[in-house]
Structure formats: C-alpha cells, structure tokens
Amino acid sequence: MNGYLEIVMVVVGFLIIAVGANRISLYFPKIKLPIITGLLFIGILSGPYVLNLLPKSSIEKLGFVNEVSLAFIAFAAGAELFLKELKGRMKSIKWMTFGQLVFTFSISVSFVLLVSERIQFLSEMSFEYQLAIALLIGTVFVTRSPVSAIAVINEMRAKGPFTQMAIGVTVIKDVLVIILFTICFAVADALISKIPFDIWLVVILFGELCLSVLLGFALGYLLNVILAIRLYTQIKAVVIVLTGYSVYLLASLVHHKSIEWFGFDLYIEPLLICILGSFVVVNFGKNRREFNRIIELVVPSIYVLFYTLTGASVKIDILQNVWSIALLFFVVRLGSMAIGAFIGGTLGGDPLRYNRISWMPFVTQAGVALGLVSVVSAKYPGWGDEFATILIAVIVLNEIFGPPLFKWSILLVGESHKQRELQHENKVQKAFIFGLEGQSLALARQLSDHDWKVKLVTRDLEKSKLEYHGVDVIHVPEYNLEELQKANAHKVDALILLNKDKENLMVCELAYEHFGTRDIVVRVHDRSFIKKFHELGALIVEPSTVMVSLMDHLVRSPVATSLLLGMEENQDTVDIEMQNSELHGVAIRDIQMPTDLIILATKRNQNTLISTGFTRLRLGDVLTVVGSIDSIDKLRLKLENTDTPDFKKIRFAGKTISFRRRQIKPDTDLPG
C-alpha cells in the first residue's frame, strides 16, 4: 500500500512540474526557440542534476508515463498518413523517401563505425557492439517530426508541390522508420547477445515483424470499435490512451512469456503496432474525424508530459563530456540528409532548384526520435545513458535549427503565401464602397479586419480630403467609364453600392458591361429597381425588409444566425474557392480538415448544392464554410492551391478561370 501511495505522490509532484513547464515554455517562441526546447529545458532544471525536484528514483517510477506518451505519439504520427491526400505527388515522395532512408541511414552508420574509436563509450567495445549501436544511431538520424512540419507549413501558409512533397515524405518516413527500427533493434539485440546469424534467426526476425504488423491492424480495428461506441469524446480519449498503454504491457508480457514457453526472446515493437493501428483508423475506418479530434485534444498534454520527463532524464554530467560529439553528429546528419535528398529528388525527376534545398524540410526532430532514444536507453542501461544524452543533444540542435531551415526553403521555392501577401501578388481581396456615410465607414473597417483592401468612393471633393481613421477615401468626379477606370474600379473583387438607386444602377451597368466584377452588392431604396439589379446579377439588400428578416432568423435560429453573422467570438463564415487540382474528384469526407469545420453548401456552375460527405469536389467549386478562424485558414490553405504544373489560369471577361491541361490524342474525335 505504501508503494502505491509513493507512486501517487511522485505522479502528483511531476504533474505540478509539468504544468509549470507548460506555462514557462510559452515564452520560448518570443526568443525564437521552439516550445519543445522550453519543455526540455525546464525538465533539465527540474531533474536530479540541477534543482533535484525530480530525483533519479522518481524518474524511474515514472517509466509508465513515458510508455503512455510514446503510444499516443505513435497514434498522432500514424494519423498523418492519409493516403488519399498523398496520391498526387507519389513519384516524388517515393524517391525522396528512398533517398532519405537508404543514403542517410547508410552514411550515418558508416560514419559512426569510422569514428567509433574516438567516442569514449564506444572505443572499448567490440565490433559487434559498435555495429549494433551504429545501426540504432542511423535509425534515429532518419526520423523527422510531422507535427513540427505541419506547424511551419501553417505559419508560412505554404502550398505547392515542394511543400506537398515535404509533408508526404515526412509522414510516410515516420512509418517506415519504425519498421526499420524494429529490424535494427532486433539485429542489434542479436549482435549484443552474440546470437549466431543463421536461418532461424532470420525466420524469428521476420516472424516478429509480421506479428507486430498483424497486431497493428488488429489494434486499428479495435480502435474503430471503441470510436463507434456512443460515449463522450473525453471518455473515448481516456480509453484510447489506456489502449495504447496496454500495447506496451502486451509487449512486456510477450517478452517474458516467450522465454518461458519457447526458450528465446520474442520482441514485438509497440511503436510500430500503434502507428499501424492509427493508420488503419484514418484510412479504413468510418470514424477518422472523431479520431483526429481526440488526437488534437490529447496530444498537447502528452507532449508536455513526455518532453518534460525526457529533459529531466538527461545526464548533465555526461553531456559536459560529449557535447563535441553531439555537434559532430549534428553536422554529419545534415550532410547525409543533403546527399540522400539530392539523389532521391533527382531519381524522382524534381527540378534542380528543388533538389539543392530538398534536405531542409527534414532537419527537425521531436517525439518519434526521442521515443526511439528512450526505448534504447531503457533496454541497455549500461551504455544507454551516454547514448541517450548524445542523441538528445543532437535532437535539440535539430529542433532549434530545423524550423528556420524549413521556412527558408519554402521562401526560396516561392511557396510562402505569407510572403506573397506582403508583396501584394493578387492575393489581397479588394473592394470599392460607393457612398460616404456611417454605414460605409463601419463596413470598410470590418472588411479591413478580415484582410480586405477597401476604398471608399465619393463624388464630394471636400469630404474626400478629410481623415477617416485608417479608411482610404478617393474622389471620383463622375460615375462614368473613364473616371472609374482611372480609379482602378475594374480591378477590384467586389463593389458595394450605397448611393441613390439611379447612381447605383449607373455603376452597376458599367461594371456588368465592362469590368466583369465578381460580386456587386447594392442597397436598394425603391423596390421598382429590384428587377433591374437582378438582371445585372447584383446581390440586393433592401433596408425595409432586411432588418425584419434578420430579427426573424435570430429569434427562430439564434445560434446559426449568430455564426453566419460572425457574432460568435473566433467564429466566421466564408466562401472558399476549390483551386487545388490534386483534390479534384475527391469526396469531402476523404479530406483531412479540422474537426470544428462544417461545409454548409457548395456552389458549382451557379447552382447551389447542399454538401454531404459524399460530395466530390470539382475545380472552381465555391464552398461555404463555418468554423473557427484558424481552422478556416487551414482549409483555405489546402483548397486554394494552383501551383501544380498541370493547372492553368486565364482571364476572361474580367474573371479568373482555372482549368486542367489535358493531352488530346491526334486521333481523338472532337465534336463539330
């Protein structure tokens, strides 16, 4: 009983430290360092070598926290491997993954063996030990962090073939590297245990791998059953966390019972089982969105616990002696990745300008790499401490330098929409508001808050010279074609007409005949003008009825109306045009998008469709989306992608039309 009480007290104490680490780490981005680095740093301070808030004995008792975290980190990595979104760039992804795995791994292993005599904890070991450790180090060097990659892509609003290749390779490589680790870990164990290599060893290794894969698929179907049960999401999250931990308990049971029953150690890899289980859920289950929602809910807390505990486990006394080796390993990893990425990109047919910098997106490491290090350290406590200390130092360096390098590569290939918006490259939406009054000023400020570039148009010269607190006002003497073209009214995306009906009709006719303006919104006073504006394709607001209709909807459906009007904090409703040719023909249900978004309708060829999960997207579709502002930005980034080579834009009648290039055979019969 006293033993259980002691564990409870240790866990409570660690949770208090983790909460503090979470709060303090939020300040690290202000000094251009990742939050993960902050968590590791606070963990080191709390560990036995600095403040001793977490003594060595406590860290040993918290081993189960490490296993719970690793299982869920594997779930998060597997959830990113959604095959339907990767099909468009599979050739490039395939060869880049090949280059990264084969060349980065081979060069790293060869280098470690070459300098093993100069590394203190390796120099006195036999060649078998050195080869085993070199294989494990090479495996860790190949790992990458999908979470960090996605964070950089969202921050830079990056989209395009280079970005798609980077995220595709990252998520696929995390699955393959776990398989590689399973094989290398088994081979290393055989080398260290001095088990002779024969046909039976190969059969056992192959059997262990097949058993892990089989259990991974079984876990996936079990997770689908759990997700299908009608329970609160929070309860399902707890059950899934415990299910992941049970995989580690099963692996430990198999390890001990196999020696007792068969006379040899049967090893199944929990990380591989969990990552395959997650892969099955997102690709072959009906509850993918709820599973992603649970991961979004749980992963932040898991990361805080895992990185804080990992930091506390770092041996500072060893780090003082091996920092130069860690720095050397960091440089070697960068060099091996550059070689592997260049060869992989060349085989995949990527342009030279991509291949020169294609290693930059793959520098950052985080959860999976630290997880592999902790597995090795726990298995071999003799030399595992020095192994873990060196590689954790390398991972921290990669975490510091990786995100800036990835951002730099995105800027170099021109796929940063953040940069394009600063350069005003046709990405800022523009609107002209005709009529200078209180409502027009309020509307201009509200549109500006949503990143529109707005100008008010007035015929009153004196009023146009006054200041209006950040709202641009321009003077147009007459509403005729010449004056409106001088004011660049033909280049805007929307016209809002708030003047008298005759003046509004004059501008609307000019825009219809000569500008082809995408959206024209008119405030109508006299109902006799409504038919004329309708014929010109304008959207009509009638003050005499709009207030009654609005209040009617607020009474009958207050929540929906508040969302549509943007009255809910951090919620918005927008139209997004589908321009990503890679998603052409993909059903809405098969798109990885934030779980708090709802697609209300899809406008196609001037027809409005009520969207369902089975609605297949087409180029040029306009989707009406409601949800949080951050999630809307993520979906916009995914859909508004026209940078692929087979996608073409033209201007026709003042509007942008997008189409896919098609190869027409000479013997094709064309109509007419």
UniProtKB/TrEMBL annotation:
Pfam families: Na_H_Exchanger, TrkA_C, TrkA_N. The chain crosses the membrane at residues 6-26, 33-51, 63-83, 95-115, 127-153, 165-188, 200-223, 235-254, 266-285, 322-347, 359-378, 390-413. The keyword Ribosomal protein does not apply. Residues 559-641 form the RCK C-terminal domain. Keywords: Ion transport, Membrane, Potassium, Potassium transport, Transmembrane, Transmembrane helix, Transport. It comes from the Bacteria. It is a multi-pass membrane protein. Gene3D superfamilies: 1.20.1530.20, NAD(P)-binding Rossmann-like Domain (3.40.50.720), Regulator of K+ conductance, C-terminal domain (3.30.70.1450). InterPro entries: Cation/H_exchanger_TM (IPR006153), Na+/solute_symporter_sf (IPR038770), NAD(P)-bd_dom_sf (IPR036291), RCK_C (IPR006037), RCK_C_sf (IPR036721), RCK_N (IPR003148). It is found in: Membrane. This is Potassium transporter TrkA. It comes from Marinifilum caeruleilacunae. The lineage of its organism: Bacteria, Pseudomonadati, Bacteroidota, Bacteroidia, Marinilabiliales.
